[in-house]
Amino acid sequence: MIISTTNTLDGKRIIEYKGIVFGEVVSGVNFLKDFAAGITNFFGGRSNSYEGELIQARENAINEMSQRAAAMGATAVLGVDIDYEVLGSANDMLMVTASGTAVVTE
User: Model confidence over 31-66: pLDDT tens digits?
Assistant: First the structure.
């Protein structure tokens, strides 16, 4: 499965549009990650705990989107966009959504 943020693929011709596909992931950020991020915030630097959570959530959303596209018979997903949102009354949930257009290429 080819995943691209572009609307075309060099050397490939789109022969069928299957539709829009999504992959959504909602994950909780636990106390230990909040604590570690708080220490990093105090002393400065990068928050590896939150970065790891973001990376994992993004990869899972892209994988879910890819699986849904494959189930539609697509060979590629084009125009991919990744969105991030914070959810929950305490802003303790992270939602990552991947979306794109599922297509069949030659």
Answer: 445 544 554 555 555 656 677 888 899 999 999 999
Task: Please state, in angstroms and rounded to a whole number, the distance separating the CA atoms of residues 106 and 75.
Answer: 9
Residue 92, φ and ψ in degrees, nearest 5: -105, 10
Sorted by where each starts, the structural domains of the chain and their CATH numbers stand as 2-105 (3.30.110.70)
Helix 31-43, helix 48-71: angle, nearest 10: 130
Strands 76-87 and 93-105: antiparallel
Of 29, 34, 24, 38, the residue nearest 92 (C-alpha): 29
State the DSSP H helix or E strand holding residue 81, giving kind and residue range, or none if neither.
Answer: strand 76-87
Verdict on whether the full-model pTM lies above 0.90: no
